[in-house]
Amino acid sequence: MFAPDCNSYNWPSHTWTNQTALLLPHPGNWVQGLDPGYILTDELVPFINPDRLSQLIESTPLHRIGQPLDVAKGVSFLASIDAHFITGANLVGFDVGITFT
């Protein structure tokens, strides 16, 4: 296991999402959240040690790290009509399996 508390910030995020959905219970008001894990952005690359990055990648069940496009696809789903039955929920586990290790 790489970081057992890597998503500890997600619980307040989930609570906010849930409570906001309860305050806006009208049709057409969808409140969703997305809790991504480690995302390799251009801004992160200069600051991450290559050995640490390799360790991070090997510690995930899918042996990869998230890319910005991965997050964009999750956001796209949550904003689409396909998510019309979802409100007050966070897309948790959106982290190549880190949550479950």
Overall description:
The structure is a single chain. The model is unreliable at 1-9 (pLDDT under 50). This protein has a domain at 37-101: Helicase, Ruva Protein, domain 3. The chain has a two-stranded parallel sheet with strand order 1-2. The termini are close together. The chain contains three helices and two strands, in the order αβααβ. 15% of the residues are buried. Helix content is 36%, strand content 11%. By secondary structure, it is of the alpha+beta class. Pfam families: adh_short_C2. InterPro entries: NAD(P)-bd_dom_sf, SDR_fam.
pLDDT < 50 runs, ≥5 residues: 1-9
Along the chain, the helix and strand elements come as HEHHE
What is the CATH topology descriptor of the domain at 37-101? Answer: Helicase, Ruva Protein, domain 3
Could you name the CATH class of the domain at 37-101? Mainly Alpha
Adjacency order of strands in the biggest sheet:
1-2
- Radius of gyration, CA atoms, in whole angstroms: 15 Å
Distance from N terminus to C terminus (CA atoms, Å) equals 6 Å
From the coordinates shown, what is the CATH architecture of the domain at 37-101? Orthogonal Bundle
Q: Strand percentage, roughly?
A: 5-15%
Shape: elongated
Q: Could you describe the largest sheet, including whether it forms a barrel?
A: 2 strands, parallel
Could you tell me the number of beta strands?
A: 2
How many alpha or pi helices? Answer: 3
Helix percentage? 25-40%
Mean pLDDT reading: 76
Helix-strand category: alpha+beta
